[in-house]
TrEMBL record, chain B:
The keyword Transmembrane helix applies. It holds the Pfam family Oxidored_q3. Keywords: Membrane, Transmembrane, Transmembrane helix. The keyword Membrane applies. InterPro entries: NADH_UbQ/plastoQ_OxRdtase_su6 (IPR001457), Nuo/plastoQ_OxRdtase_6_NuoJ (IPR042106). Signal peptide: none annotated. PANTHER family: NADH-UBIQUINONE OXIDOREDUCTASE CHAIN 6. It comes from marine metagenome. The chain crosses the membrane at residues 6-23, 30-47, 53-75, 87-106, 145-167. GO terms for molecular function: NADH dehydrogenase (ubiquinone) activity. This is NADH-quinone oxidoreductase subunit J. The lineage of its organism: unclassified sequences, metagenomes, ecological metagenomes.
Amino acid sequence: MITEALVLSAMIFVLGTFGVLVRRNAIIMFLCIELQLNAVNLAFIAFSRLMGIDGQVFVFFVMTVAAAEAAVGLAIIISVFRHYETVNVDNFKLLRW
Amino acid sequence: MIEVLFYVFAAVALGGALGVVWAKSPVGSLLYMVATLASLACIFVLLEAHFLAAIQVIVYAGAIMVLFLFVIMLLNLGHDYQRDLKGGAFSLLSFVIIGLMAGVLVRQFGENAITEPTAGGRAIDAALAQHGAVGAIAQPLYTTYVVPFEITGVLLLVAIVGALVLAKKGGR
């Protein structure tokens, strides 16, 4: 079951990466980043079956960082929305090359 | 039995992940995400990470997803049904590259199949039997990893202050 969990984790991570690359809605891009973080959590837990409980402690930290990231990221989205009236990242061109 | 359950939850998780990427509206995407998180929590239980499964449901599906939903409603994006997928060569190229990446990973994991019971698995089962589901993870968290744990607290404080400053109306 560890091998299958690692394969599932790789698949979910790849789907999350694909979502970040192709979606243009900032909120959905954030959701896809959360998807990637969850895939990593699954990999950590699968590896903790090999290496001991330390992997689970790391998942705890990853979840905390994900919560902090979601709070700050959504605050950024809100302030960007106030300025541009949209969350489509194609419209944010100020810092674009 | 456990294997069958694992495959069922894995299928739901993968379907939910696909839904997150393909759903038209942000709310639909979010609901698919909740399905993925719930089935991942079930997989955590199957992998003997009971405390983390509970945290996954309470913190992720409960708090973070509600925060996302709250922002979607606040910005009134609930009926934003336009396709926002980036089309054309870029999308195709990223799909091919990512597919290759997944193929390499799956092959790598598939070749070296791991047989249970493993050393780490036995250690975790012993810790679970001795300290219980919460104690097993609290033991290393408050001894070996106490400094990262405190730093995490500071990180959360910084995130709270940062989110307040960023989302404040007017500002500066």
